[in-house]
Design a protein that fits this description.
Structural class of chain A: mainly beta
Radius of gyration of chain A: 23 Å
Largest sheet of chain B: 5 strands, mixed
Distance between the termini of chain B: 88 Å
Number of strands of chain A: 11
Number of helices of chain B: 1
Distance between the termini of chain A: 72 Å
Strand content of chain B: 35-45%
Radius of gyration of chain B: 24 Å
Strand content of chain A: 35-45%
Strand order of the largest sheet of chain B: 1-9-8-5-6
Largest interface: A-B, 27 and 15 residues
Number of strands of chain B: 10
Order of helices and strands of chain B: HEEEEEEEEEE
Shape of chain B: elongated
Oligomer: heterodimer
Chain lengths: ~190, ~190
Amino acid sequence: MSGKLWRGALAVLVGLAVLAGLNWATPATGVWNLEVHGASDEVVVGHRYSVEIIQVVLASTVTVASTEMTTSEVFVAVNWQAAVHGSQARFRAVVLRTADGAEYRQLSEFDAAQLPTTAAGFTSSGVAVFELPPDAVIGADLVIGPEQGQLQSHDQQVVVDDVVTAETERYDAITLNPPVTKVTPR
Amino acid sequence: MNRTLRSWLVTLGVAGLLLGVLAAVGGFGRAHTDGEQALPVGAPIDIGRWSVTVERAQLVNTNMSGAPLEQSRVVIWLTLTNTGLTSGYGPSEDAIAFLGPTGYLDEDAPLFYVNDPAEPSLIGPGLTRERFVEFPITDADWADGDPVKVLLGREQPSDGGFSNVEGWTVSRIVGVVRVPVEDRRE
């Protein structure tokens, strides 16, 4: 074999080795893998907003505005706030994730209490309500996910770990207030 | 043996071997067409991320509170159990379809109605809820004894391909539930 052919083959092999190395070194980051975690008693800072849990309670009946819902399971009402410091956030993909990986979306019937679309520089507080089987609530995490569109998104999701504990208070009925938005104090 | 004959024999031998392998793995068996498999009324049927029980069907010309309707309707009652890991309202339009004597009753995705206004419409993982669907009908189209057919397909996860938006696709037809229709028209 001529030297020219050897050099060509070597160049191909080096190229393949570089590609294999890049493939190995690139982290497998899908839409849902970009997560920032924090505890329920701290401010969890994401790159677009910071999340803080105000209070979590369990209830059988929840009322907001003219809507009253009752469950034979349990409602988890998470009062939380988000200080937006990046671009405008809509907070549509809010779920409670249980220990077995099941994801419970916030109930749309209580949208009058949910966090509104919030612009940068403002802090909104509101309540997300979820319906779960009672035996699944302990240790559930609050997950505020990115808006999932048709195109790939590398937006981040914020996870607050263990928002429901054995000490979380339980009520027969609760009434929720509308959300509040204020200028974020500097 | 001349060369032409030998090459023919080799070709036939290879072809025979391939046919034998094909036969051994069931390639000549009856095609697996379970599309019209009859499924029972009143029994849960697993279709992937939902378990569906088709309970009963009624022809009505009044609404739930007894007020007359402009057009008669067929109402189909279902019990849905969310066996998946995310909340949902019910099976997708690809996984469930409703047919009357003249064809499909649903032109768009079915809406799963809640009978109890105090009950959330979203069904979380592990929760079982009663729902109904209803479709307007032409009285003349529905003869005595005509059933409603509920066609069920099995859903499986799809990675979304290039869009990277995970979803579900129907991999095969599970079967058909033929539901007797109770005529409650007044």
